[in-house]
Amino acid sequence: MVAIDRRKFKAVNHRDRNVTSAELKRWMEAIEASIARYVAALDVAD
Fold first, then answer.
1. What gap in Å lies between CA 4 and CA 16, rounded to an integer?
2. Into how many domains does the chain fold?
3. pLDDT tens, position by position, 11-39
4. In a domain, 12, yes or no
5. For the CA atoms of the chain, what is the radius of gyration?
6. Between residues 13 and 45, which one has the greater pLDDT?
7. Does any domain span residue 2?
């Protein structure tokens, strides 16, 4: 627990909420691929 200005926030470090570096890399690759598809679709539409 952390108290800031008398407010309490519970720290949660559950394995379902943890992100590994490999998982983050996969997410970033998927985002980059999605952006590339979007830009390609814009080029086709022009």
1. 26
2. 1
3. 777 777 788 889 999 999 999 999 999 99
4. no
5. 19
6. 45
7. no
Neighbour-count burial for 24-42, b at 16+ CB within 10 Å, e otherwise = eeeeeeeeeeeeeeeeeee
What whole-number distance in Å separates Cα of residue 23 and Cα of residue 29? 10
Q: Which residues 6+ apart lie within 8 Å of 15 measured at CB?
A: none
- pTM of this structure: 0.59
In a domain, 8, yes or no: no
The domain of 40 spans 19-46
Q: What is the DSSP string of the chain?
A: -EEETTEEE-----TTT---HHHHHHHHHHHHHHHHHHHHHHHHH-
Q: Is residue 29 part of a domain?
A: yes
